[in-house]
Amino acid sequence: MKAAITRELAKIIPTIRCHGDFYATGKSEIAMPNLEVGGVGRIALPLLPVQAEQLIAIAARAPYGRGEETLIDTDVRRTWQIAADGVHLSGNSWARTLDAIVGKAANSLGVTGPVSAELYKLLVYDAGSFFVEHRDTEKIPGMFATLVVVLPSACNGGELIVRHRGREVCLDLNCSDSAEVSFAAFYADCVHEVRPVTSGFRLTLVYNLTRSGHRQPAVPPEYDKEQTAITALLRRWVANKDSPDDSSPEKLIYPLEYAYTPAELSFDALKSADAAAAAVLVRAAEEAAFDLHLALVSIDETGSAEYSGYASRRRSRWHRARDDDDDEEDYDDDFDVGEIIERTLTVSHWRRPDGRQPAINALPFEERELCPPGSFDGLEPDEQHFHEATGNEGASFERTYRRAAFVLWPRARRLAVLNQAGLGVTLPYLNDLAQRWTQSGGSQESPTWGEAHVLAGHMLHGWPASPGYFGTRQADEVISMLSSLTQLHDTVHVDTLLSAISAKGLYHGSENEALARAFGILPPERTAELMGQIISANAQMMPGACAGLLARTSEGTQPACPPALLHPVATALVETFLGQRASASRPGCLRWPDPIESSLIVDLLTALDRMDSPSLAGRVVEHVLGNPASFGMDAIIVPAVLGLTEWAPMANVASVQRLRAACLAHLRCRIAEPLEPPADFARTNTVSCRCVHCAELGRFLVDPGRKEWALKAAQHFRSHVESVIRQHDCDLDCATRRVGSPHSLICTKNQASYERRVRQRKDDLRNVERLDVFSEHG
């Protein structure tokens, strides 16, 4: 279905203009009326038990109607009644209180025009009183509803049940507070009952509600036509959600007509047309298997602002100095909104029709989900603040638009809606599902596994891919997703994610352990294929990470992939490493190649040994030893050989022994070089700069009789010379003498080069000893 669903729904809901429901209820504060009953006298409120007994003593059993008959049967109705002509209500405020109650009831029932209340009788309920379900009859012309006012009286039980067209409400009208009364009103043709009073007494006034000038009595509002139309619309929408060309939104947002604060946001507090729309939507959503919520829709914007003018700015500042109360208004008048830089759309403060608050955090929304589209166009912001320019930052503004709204989505698409919250919400939820599924020991037929599988599908459908550098945060997301899917043994989605890693350039290197575990649940042939795709796309930029992945995948007595299947992958990696094969271009890659580290040689030779590929390992060693500029002996090769020889399975491998021999030759050659401290102050001059100050520096360095040199020059000349000294590792300590102008750079000769060689000699001797030990063991 096309996105026109948002327009179609927005056409139907506004036609539900008659607000109201089949019942009304509430409480009203009162000043106690004067209540007198013939034969008893004035009644104290709250009702005293002794006076309740006196009322019962003069009351009659309440009858009930059956057809044209009026009967008394305590198996049908058990309560006491006093006729209206024996009841007298007076007091300064009672008439106003009753008018207010009638007004509230009429409004909630959806009745317009004048409504009158005529006292019908006074009822007294004692323990055991009840009335089975029944309908009221029209007792006077124009009667359309019954109003029940419960006066302050202490009792338990006696709930009023009202039913209409398959709906039912249970109203607890007990009221013991002397400062208020409870009331309920319902249309005369509604079936209702009073459940047994379990203790105490209840004192109730019953009124007939009438509309003057109306021949036909009012009836409960019915929205069958609108409800049927909305139900059908929702069903068509969800039926088309699985269509490949469906472009409809995941949820629908219909803004309410009235404003509500978060504290006021509930289905019970809706006003007028909003209440009418809610009554229809609740039933339509239930029939169409939809979730319906009330929520607060917010649009937050930030951006640049522009000053309106210097004179206006000066005037508002003067006002601010004089009158803090006008601060915000005058301040805002100084600015105009400029360009919007950031716009955030969220839905929050969720409420269900049953009053519960679901455990849903703020969800993002798209403007195409609004019913109708453009619902927020032309709105005045609820909040708007301007900020003056500070430092390098120009003037800016912040503003927020808020509206309460109905939010609908298909119950079957709940996880798709949750997915809109992003990986920060869905990844922990998926992990929790995986943990619960594992702990339960369930099968893949369990509802928990099914929920996890569906959620993972939604997550992977729009899995984010950075067009450039794929950073640590994104790698952590991949690791989390892979770990959950592997725990679930969800081979379908593991395959999908691994395919995305190679196709979208989502490989970082830190996820090698998670990748190796994921490969372990796939068929070996598929593992080799996916490994080839990932390594082919990344070998040139991340050879070390790719070698690590090859090593992790091939380790163990039962590796994730047999060596024979991995051999073509290893060949491709080695040939890329040797420069004999160009790596496939990584999508949108803007990063520099990773620096070469000793772990590259360790992982690559270890993996090749497991695959029994001595020829490939020999080519790797030959390349490493033949390119000393790229593979420094001290920085890379020696640490790699130490790592390899200290691990027994690799100590006697031919490729490792060849590298070990090269390392020993290198170290012994350097150990044989003479090591003497400087005999005088002559130092090596490696300075390449030929400026006048650096030339003087060079002459100072080679002078055997000078220990200190002072350069008195402008600051930028001193900084240049000091930078050259650091760049060339000159054996000099530098300090600035801040005497006179300009200041002086004091350079004092030290023995840094000799001390470095002493430390290097100790390291060389220790490394030769370690390599010789492993040679003897071999």
Topology of helices and strands:
Elements (H helix, E strand, L loop, with lengths): L4 H8 L10 E7 L4 E4 L3 E2 L6 H10 L1 E2 L2 E3 L2 E3 L5 E2 L1 E4 L3 E4 L3 H16 L6 E10 L4 E5 L8 E9 L3 E3 L2 E5 L2 E5 L8 E8 L3 E4 L2 E4 L1 E9 L13 H16 L12 E4 L16 H16 L2 E18 L2 H13 L4 H7 L1 E17 L11 E2 L18 E5 L8 E15 L3 H6 L3 H18 L6 H15 L10 H17 L2 H13 L8 H8 L4 H15 L4 H12 L8 H15 L20 H13 L3 H12 L7 H13 L2 H4 L2 H19 L19 H11 L5 E5 L2 H13 L4 E6 L6 E6 L2 H26 L1
Organism: Paraburkholderia solitsugae
Protein name: 2OG-Fe(II) oxygenase
Describe the structure.
This protein has 778 residues and is an alpha+beta fold. Among the domains are: 20-210, Jelly Rolls, CATH 2.60.120; 225-415, no CATH class; 692-750, Ribosomal Protein S8, Chain: A, domain 1 (2-Layer Sandwich), CATH 3.30.1370. The protein is built from 24 helices and 28 strands. The chain has a seven-stranded antiparallel beta sheet with strand order 1-16-12-19-10-8-4. Strands 20, 21, 22, 23, 24 and 25 form a six-stranded antiparallel beta sheet that branches. Helix 1 packs antiparallel against helix 4, helix 4 (224-239) crosses helix 5 and helix 14 packs antiparallel against helix 15. The longest helix is centred in the last third of the chain and has 26 residues, at 752-777. The chain is elongated and about 130 Å long. The relative contact order is 0.06. It comes from Paraburkholderia solitsugae. This is 2OG-Fe(II) oxygenase.
